[in-house]
Amino acid sequence: MANINIRRDVADPFYRYKMERLQSKVEGKGNGIKTVIVNISNVAHQLARPQALQQAMSSSTLVSS
Q1: Are 30 and 24 within 8 A, CB to CB?
Q2: 7 CB-near residues (< 8 Å, 6+ apart)
Q3: Residues 25 and 11 sit within 8 Å (Cβ to Cβ)
Q4: pLDDT greater than 70 at residue 64
Q5: Which of 2, 14, 43, 46 is the most buried (most CB within 10 A)?
Q6: Would you say 44 and 51 are in contact if contact means Cβ atoms under 8 Å apart?
Q7: Is 65 within 8 Å of 50 (Cβ atoms)?
Q8: What pLDDT shows up at residue 9?
Q9: Residue 65 has pLDDT above 60, yes or no
């Protein structure tokens, strides 16, 4: 998978700070539907942040539980 610049406004292909593009998939049916970020551990490692922090930030930003 191709890496993208963490700062999306920088178009330099040799920009130092990169991460994988998020991969998500939808699981469940009806009222039990949820979105799963498949590669959150890799992205958290590349951002130098704990995986639990990434999950908490994305759930509060996206207003989900």
Answers
A1: no
A2: 15, 17
A3: no
A4: no
A5: 43
A6: yes
A7: no
A8: 92
A9: no
In angstroms, the CA 64 to CA 24 distance is 15
Between CA 61 and CA 13 the distance in angstroms is 29
Closest Cα partner for 36 from 6, 61, 58? 58
Work out the pLDDT band at 32, boundaries 50, 70, 90: confident
CA nearest neighbour of 1 among 20, 18, 25, 24: 20
- Alpha-carbon distance of 55 to 50, in angstroms, equals 9
Domains and CATH numbers, the chain: 3-61 (3.30.30.170)
CA dist 52 and 56 (Å) reads 6
Lookup: tokens for 2: 């191709």
